[in-house]
Amino acid sequence: VVIVSLTMSAILVFFIVPLTILFFIYLSNILLLIYQRNSEVKAHPLSDVWDSARKTIASFWDIYARIWHGYELHGVENLPEGPGILVYYHGAIPVDYLYFLSRLFLWKKRLCLSVADHFVFRLPGLKLLLEVTGIMPGTREECLIALKNGHLVSISPGGVREALFSDESYQLMWGNRKGFAQVALDAKVVSIICY
């Protein structure tokens, strides 16, 4: 009985966090769809029309971050007022990055457009959430346009490789991925490396 209960507890702990996060991601998308339908919003997903929906979802994620993970954010005051590139470590489940985006929006009323791998855009049912939160495929041209429009752009050069093959030492696995540096030079913006 003890072995079975310990095994069940381990399985629940191992799967409950990723499943909860996945549930909340899809719940966020459903809330956006409801907002879009009830308000009959036809505006561009990055426009200010979506700010009240963004605030609701950001508050939701921020509460989850505080309760479940005790999340804290330091150094937001060091972010540039204008455009800039944030370079971050890609964990196995980059939930801390979702928390960062939420807190940044709540504190600074600022969007940070995020570069994501192409497979993210193939996930079913998340199109509106990706558009409203500023997730983009991240070609150099798209990053330059976003920076020229005054946005922060975040990039994780290690991407999925870093998420799958790194360990608790948080060793960067960028390989030859240095395109973000060229984008920063081309746009003449500051690059900030975050951990």
From TrEMBL:
InterPro entries: Plipid/glycerol_acylTrfase (IPR002123). Residues 72-190 form the Phospholipid/glycerol acyltransferase domain. One of its GO terms (molecular function) is acyltransferase activity. Signal peptide: none annotated. The chain crosses the membrane at residues 6-35. One of its GO terms (cellular component) is membrane. The keyword Repressor does not apply. Keywords: Membrane, Transmembrane, Transmembrane helix. It comes from the Eukaryota. The keyword Ubl conjugation does not apply. PANTHER family: PHOSPHOLIPID_GLYCEROL ACYLTRANSFERASE DOMAIN-CONTAINING PROTEIN, TRANSMEMBRANE PROTEIN 68. This is TMM68 protein. It comes from Anhinga anhinga (Anhinga).
